[in-house]
Fold:
Amino acid sequence: MENVLEVRNLTKSYSEFTLADVTFSLPKGCIKGVIGPNGAGKTTAIKIIMNQIRANSGEVEVFGLNYRKDEKAIKNRIGYVGEEQYFYLNKSVGWTGRFVAQYYERWDENRFDNLLMQFRISRSKKTRELSKGMKVKLAFALALAHDPDLLILDEPTSGLDPVIRRELLDLLKDICQEQGKSVLISSHITDDLVRIADYVTFMHEGRIILESEKDDLLSNWKRIHFRRSVLPPEVVATLSHVEDHMFGSSGITKDFRALKDNLAEAIAREDVKVENVNLDDILITFVKGA
Amino acid sequence: MLGILKKDFFLYVLMFLLFVPLEVMSVYKDRLSWGSTVSFASQMMIAVLLPVVGSESREYLTSGYRFLKSLPVTDREIVQAKHALPLGFVALWVTYQYVLLGLVPASEKFLLLSRGYVVVMANVCLLVSAGILYAACRFGMGRFTKFSAMGLPVLIGVAIVLVNEGLLRWFRRVPTAQGLDALAGLASWFSLVVLCCAGLGLYWLIVRASVKAKAAREE
Structure:
């Protein structure tokens, strides 16, 4: 499958943080979620991908192009919503739209109008009068009005109420499904990514610690509830975060498919129970284990 | 680039429109004099430098550059747009003052000296603008915000008043007829063109340095 984004061996050092050897790609038409705790390096990686900061080393290729030669061509095809929304605060929404429109070759004024209507944002309102949620919606409207091939979203839903979050995520999903657009979205709200992502990349302390298809990950990572007398020690040894409780023990397996046959009888006898884990559990497993 | 030009254009136009009637009234009332020539150039300095500082402070206070970096616009275009307006308005001021000097009757020597003075001050104005913009690209306005918001305009105003005052005193006291002739001799069209080219050349070099500084700086 063709990749719209390829990131190779990115490193960026600050006095108290280093982004180390980050490599990943985003296939066309897919949504990739980047998950990590605060300070994991998600925003730094995205800022490098947006050419807002320079990496110490490594390469970023977007649509097969690089920023050294083709910054405008690349950004013309990207819709970006950052962690914080920056607009000229003393200007109106309409002015902001007209200002941004001058820079995009495929700007569609009708689409922008429709998005403003859908988000219930008045053109005449000053951007400083918008609430945080409305600013994010305006950023989405600006990012989508030029029909981008790739959306790059850095924690776009953090701080938003659940209704607006759901509304924006549904919009994103529709855009990808109906128009084949690609999305790179970072978030520490893993529920958001479970809803929309095809691939997930886990980051921690400036490194990628896991990258996988979301469905594959969720079907392979399971929480096992067991009694120690039932499960052989060599199987227990393969589990992470084993905890002993009053009525037994539990642990997380990263490879349920490999264990499934061994556990089939115990599961049938209900001596072992298997529970789905969510992306939070996986993240915590890595963060605590690190 | 056009978007950035349009956005900042208003500030420059406002200052131009504010000072032009003052000049016209001054010439209408007192005719041309050394005082009016010095005053023209000072007004040009104020009318160009204040918008330079104002637009940079505004970009900083509204995180404008961060906004621009998310759009398909390169550092080069941003820097060029920011430098194009002072250049354009200094040219406008010089043209306007030359027209005014041509319309009001005065001695040939006075006109030569006035034209020369206007060109020298236009160069100074351009280079100070470029210096401010370079500093903003290299260090960011954050470091200068309080200073730039209040201190710099006051400093520029005080400096201009002091220079004016000094020049006017000098004109009243020192120059003999021979001295003025010698000065007027320096202010030939050829030397003015050379001076303009040198100023523009320096300006272009500072623009290039600003592009590099902007590209190296993380907002």
Notes: The domain at 3-212 of chain A is CATH 3.40.50.300 (Rossmann fold). The interface with chain B takes residues 50-54, 71-76, 80, 82, 86-90, 99-100, 102-104 of chain A (CB under 8 Å). The first strand of chain A starts at residue 3 and ends at 13.
